[in-house]
Amino acid sequence: MYELTHFAINADDVQQARRFYRETFGWEFSAWGPPGFYRIEAGTPGGPGVTAALQQRRDLIPGRPVAGFESTVAVPDVAAVTAAALAAGGRVLMDKTTIEGVGDLVWLADPSDNVVGAMRYQR
């Protein structure tokens, strides 16, 4: 079984979303990476939890902006997981790419076009 390690909230108005989540759940945000991308500080130090991000809404499936929370699962082998997803009726939305200092990432869609990322993290 693989572990859920990341989720992202896609928003049309990132500043409004930051305000909502800060005021609703007490989450803090720090700018990271490209413009309009923030790490969410949503856990207690040293406690369990996942990494989270707030980011500008985008299309992983052309013409269909991502709605809802987007999740990433930690895997030991991106190629093997991609092959398994294709065999199970899914499809690749973004071929494997390497995020320097983080790991290898592929974006997949399940047969209902729900989006999920698979990441081999550098340890």
UniProtKB/TrEMBL annotation:
Pfam families the UniProt entry points to: Glyoxalase_6
Protein name (database record): VOC domain-containing protein
PROSITE patterns: VOC
InterPro entries according to UniProt: Anthracycline_SecMetBiosynth (IPR052164), Glyas_Bleomycin-R_OHBP_Dase (IPR029068), Glyoxalase_6 (IPR041581), VOC_core (IPR037523)
Stored Gene3D superfamilies: 2,3-Dihydroxybiphenyl 1,2-Dioxygenase, domain 1 (3.10.180.10)
Residue span, VOC domain: 3-121
The species this protein was found in: Labedaea rhizosphaerae
Phylogenetic lineage: Bacteria, Bacillati, Actinomycetota, Actinomycetes, Pseudonocardiales
